[in-house]
Each structure stands twice: as structure tokens, then as C-alpha cells.
Design brief:
Elements (H helix, E strand, L loop, with lengths): L9 H24 L1 E6 L2 E7 L11 H15 L1 H8 L1
Antiparallel strand pairs: 1-2
Length: 85
Amino acid sequence: MFLAGNNMSDNREKKDTDMNQSFAQFAEQAEKDGHVYIYKDNEPRFMVIDLEKEPQIEMSEDEKFEFVARRLLRDHKKVFTELAK
């Protein structure tokens, strides 16, 4: 997203321009392959998909289980930490 305005620093404009260029690269790759994963902390965190090639997101049973398990662990980390003691 490129934001325009009078009070914007050159640094912010550069970051937004870099983000636009990076997203364009992700979008181009998604057009080729159908989807692209974006990793954070060495784990897939986001996915850019080409809706014309992959109109719906399909997950295996294992992927669904892992998704729910990660969410539960993240949302209830304090409780699980106490139970582990």
C-alpha cells in the first residue's frame, strides 16, 4: 500500500514502495504457481493465492489439525505452561 500525504517522511515512502514491489513479486509468483507462502520465524504465516487458479483453500486433515492446535496453544499458552509444571 502506498500512502500519500504531506507529513510523510522519505523513509516511510521508501518502505511503502519496497512493500509494493515485494507484493508485486509475490503476486507474480502466485500467478505462476497458484499460491505463495510468506514465512515468519521460519514458519509459513501467510499465503497469497491466485483465486482464478485456486478458488478455495483446501487443507488435509493433518493441516487442519495442526492449524487448530497452533491456535489453541497460542491462545492458551499461559494455561498450558501451568499444566506442564
